[in-house]
């Protein structure tokens, strides 16, 4: 059976206004699983960037890659504005795709 491809650009965040990661994939569910389970060592596992805060679907991978490159060139505030235009509370959109939501990140307070 041939797997259906859904080209997609996605933005992950470590927490609201935290570290951002922009990626492209043809299998968003599979890629989210990889990020959340630390299957691929690297930036997202090192900085715990697992909250899906935005994704855009495309008809073909070529357009998805062009959009990914465009977003990666943007200033950080433009990326934040883009996220907040449709997800002002920085909810974990992966919950709507069948994943448990990433909870709030706790920062040690020294007490």
Automatic annotation (TrEMBL):
Residues 5-82 form the GIY-YIG domain. Keywords: Endonuclease, Hydrolase, Nuclease. It comes from the Bacteria. Pfam families: GIY-YIG. One of its GO terms (molecular function) is endonuclease activity. CDD domains: GIY-YIG_unchar_3. PROSITE patterns: GIY_YIG. Transmembrane segments: none annotated. Belongs to the UPF0213 family. This is Endonuclease. It comes from Erythrobacter neustonensis.
């Amino acid at each position: 059976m041939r797997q259906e491809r859904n080209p997609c650009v996605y933005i992950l965040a470590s927490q609201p206004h935290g570290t951002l990661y922009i990626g492209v994939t043809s299998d968003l569910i599979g890629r989210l699983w990889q990020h959340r389970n630390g299957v691929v060592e690297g930036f997202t596992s090192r900085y715990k960037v697992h909250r899906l805060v935005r994704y855009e679907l495309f008809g073909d991978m070529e357009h998805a890659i062009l959009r990914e490159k465009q977003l990666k060139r943007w200033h950080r505030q433009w990326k934040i504005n883009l996220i907040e235009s449709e997800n002002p509370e920085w909810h974990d959109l992966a919950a709507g795709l069948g994943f448990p939501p990433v909870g709030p990140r706790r920062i040690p307070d020294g007490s």
